[in-house]
Specification:
225 residues; alpha+beta; five-stranded mixed beta sheet; 9 helices; 44% helix
């Protein structure tokens, strides 16, 4: 049955307007982006096919141009449209922080980082560099590794802090697996970097690990810092 024949509250666009975007499934959100289906499949059915093909929404959004265009019903136009949407989203959150919002709560920093890291298909480590009032100076993505590991060198972390004249930092990386639970190596790395940063009187406020579907882990919040 075509979507136009569905009950009004079951149609993705109408459902979003009535109940809010957070009430929609990944397939429904993707269907709104796709706008139309293909022969024999509604937009929602096509969206679910693509999610099955790419495994997760994050993997689809972070796919390379070549991989993305191999998806059914996708192509250059959709890839360009998606990249524009993602960049607008990043700039929206960047703008809010640049207007003076201090990163005093892990929820604020995690929401910002999700737009930089949650769609990465490989583990990426970076720094939120902050001033004395804990306002954002910059986000510096320093290292990108394999599917589950990025080699992090304290010397380059220190250099980034000095280059930006930061007074404090929040360490951050993603787990492409989607599970933000810190590993033993994550905990060891945190201690190494915290000790290294202390030698130049820079505070390490937190280490945030970004997963999928809005999941994240704050080591400071859990008493692990």
């Amino acid at each position: 049955m075509a979507i136009c024949h569905w009950h009004e509250h079951d149609r993705p666009r109408e459902k979003l307007l009535h109940f809010g975007a957070e009430k929609l499934s990944d397939a429904e959100l993707l269907a709104i982006f796709l706008r139309t289906g293909v022969s024999g499949q509604s937009a929602v059915a096509l969206a679910q096919t693509l999610l099955d093909q790419f495994d997760t929404l994050s993997a689809l959004l972070g796919a390379s141009y070549d991989d993305f265009c191999q998806g059914k019903g996708l192509g250059t136009a959709k890839y360009v449209q998606l990249q524009a949407v993602l960049e607008m989203s990043r700039r929206h959150f960047q703008s809010g922080l640049e207007k003076g919002q201090a990163l005093t709560e892990p929820e604020i920093a995690a929401r910002y980082l999700q737009h930089h890291l949650s769609h990465q298909s490989r583990e990426t480590f970076g720094l939120l560099l902050l001033d004395q009032q804990h306002q954002l100076i910059a986000f510096d993505a320093l290292f990108t590794g394999t599917l589950n590991q990025a080699s992090v060198h304290p010397r380059e972390v220190i250099q980034s802090v000095l280059d930006h004249q930061a007074a404090a930092v929040i360490l951050a990386h993603n787990h492409p697996s989607g599970d933000p639970t810190p590993s033993e190596s994550d905990r060891h790395l945190t201690e190494r970097l915290k000790t290294a940063l202390a030698t130049i009187d820079v505070r390490c406020l937190d280490h945030l690990i970004i997963g999928d579907h809005g999941r994240w882990h704050s080591m400071a919040q859990r008493g692990q810092l």
